[in-house]
Amino acid sequence: MGNRNKQGIMVSLYLFNVHxxxxxxxxxxxxxxxxxxTLIVTGIWNLLNQKGGSFLGYE
Length: 59
Prior knowledge:
Blueprint: H1 2-27, H2 30-50
């Protein structure tokens, strides 16, 4: 159960970051935008690697 809680926290962090990205887009702050995108991409990549990346087609 602890792992599922951790993933829930991660997902809410992503949603928060996505919301932040929209705000940054509106304000045309590109540097902050890239920071957020990098965080999200690396986070998703880490989640995929934890699960073995099976739904990317890698075994």
